[in-house]
Amino acid sequence: MKQNILIVDDEKDICLTLSKILSSKGYLVQTAINSDVAINTIKSTPVDLVLLDVWLEGSNKNGLELLNIIKNFNPNTPVILISGHANVEMAVKAIKQGAFYFIEKPFKSEKLFLIIDRALENAFLKNKYEIYKENLENDGQLIGDTVVINNLKKKIKQISNSNVRVFISGESGSGKSFVAKHIHDLSEKSSKPFVTINCALLNNKNFDKLFYGDFNESNKTIGYLQKANQGTIYLKEICDLEYHIQGKITNFLHKETYTIDSLSNEKDKFNVNIRFISSTSRNVNEEIENKTLRKDLLYRLNVSSLQIPSIKNRKEDIPLLIDHFINKKYKKNIKKIKLSADVYALLQTIDWPGNVTQIENFVEWLYIFVKSSNEKIDIITNKMIPNDLLGKNAKSNKNVDKESVMNLPLKSARKNFEKQYLINQVNRFGGNISKTANFIGMERSALHRKIKEIGIKK
């Protein structure tokens, strides 16, 4: 994506000359001969860098006043001040107000190019650092190979190529935040900030300050809109928003503009170029009926929707997820732990109500268990899996109760074993009879008859 440079100078010849030079270097260039045109351009168009004349004769605002407006709108936009009548005091003041560099006229093109390159690189690194801080553990992969996950991957790819708002629903721990970041990373906005807003932390007292920012003589608080400029805002768990705050966000999404107070006691109105992605783990129809979610907010956010499948609907992915989290440990130079094949099969029979997050926590527990054990553990076996994870089927999942089996005749014991075996295998493959039949070596119709015969209920 070409970077956009705004040239602000009261001399048309300088604007024209600089525009031709920078265009020849592959930049998109816009010009403004006074502060009013410059402000309107900044409000309506994404700008990556500003070349700003200090004096701006005949303008309502001089260069230093305009610098303050630019920095209030987006502190990360680099501004290079240029002047033919500069002094040290003015240069120092400009740098203190946030200018990247102060260059005197006349200047050589090579020097200007060098300063522009450094300024854009500095802004790029700042954005990258923010992205790095936001998602230090992100590995850029959506783990799974089931039909539901492969369909989700395709839809994510389609959505990412557009700039539409996306609404993500799914159970807690299913990976909604990861998918939101994944969409951003695959989009044209990937080099711009990705800002997460935890909706539970927004309330009437702090909303304006956190969302729009707060600028006054003694303090500057950068809001989410300035932080995410040209990037993506992720509204995490929108149903946690106070109802009154939902109205404010709905109004903002309708106008896509906001107003901030400048240090000159004026109000500056800006357009935004931000993509919104939102999520919830609740039933939106129930939330709307209970008047805890505004229908008009949902309409604004739900331009395109994604449903993240729970683990119980993709149990075949469980071994892949477990290996993925073990490999993440290995990348941090932590020795890999090994699981026996029957442990993977056993773990596929569990419901995992906490979804992917619970599986990751389970892997963490395995490492703690191995490290704290008095004996050397070469491989994790079924007997080492805690009963509280297995739930009510702990005994039948891990081993057959020997005492009860010994009291049964052979035919009944065989029937009990066969029933539990088939229940576990059907659960393992998420209720898919075809895949279960293929794995255990039976015809699909024969397996249906056997399930009916021994009384297994769906």
Could you explain how this protein is built, in words?
This protein is α/β, with parallel strands linked by helices and 458 residues long. The chain is built from 21 helices and 14 strands. It has helices spanning 12-24, 35-44, 63-73, 88-96, 109-134, 147-160, 176-186, 207-212, 224-227, 243-255, 284-289, 295-301, 318-331, 341-347, 355-372, 387-390, 394-398, 402-406, 410-428, 433-440, 444-453; strands spanning 4-8, 28-32, 49-53, 79-83, 101-104, 166-169, 194-198, 214-215, 220-221, 232-236, 257-261, 267-271, 275-280, 304-307. Strands 2-1-3-4-5 form a five-stranded parallel sheet, with helices on both faces. The longest helix is centred in the first third of the chain and has 26 residues, at 109-134. The two termini are 53 Å apart.
Keywords:
458 residues, alpha/beta, Rossmann fold, Helicase, Ruva Protein, domain 3, 4 domains, 21 helices, 14 strands, elongated
Spans with pLDDT under 50 lasting ≥5 residues?
Answer: 394-403
* Number of spatially distinct domains: 4
Number of separate helices: 21
State the share of residues found in helices, binned by percent.
40-55%
Query: Assembly type of the shown chains?
Result: single chain
Task: Give the overall shape.
Answer: elongated
The pLDDT mean sits at 85
- Radius of gyration computed on alpha carbons: 30 Å
Give the arrangement of secondary structure elements.
Layout: E1 4-8, H1 12-24, E2 28-32, H2 35-44, E3 49-53, H3 63-73, E4 79-83, H4 88-96, E5 101-104, H5 109-134, H6 147-160, E6 166-169, H7 176-186, E7 194-198, H8 207-212, E8 214-215, E9 220-221, H9 224-227, E10 232-236, H10 243-255, E11 257-261, E12 267-271, E13 275-280, H11 284-289, H12 295-301, E14 304-307, H13 318-331, H14 341-347, H15 355-372, H16 387-390, H17 394-398, H18 402-406, H19 410-428, H20 433-440, H21 444-453
Parallel strand pairs: 1-2, 1-3, 3-4, 4-5, 6-13, 6-14, 7-10, 10-13
Antiparallel strand pairs: 8-9, 11-12
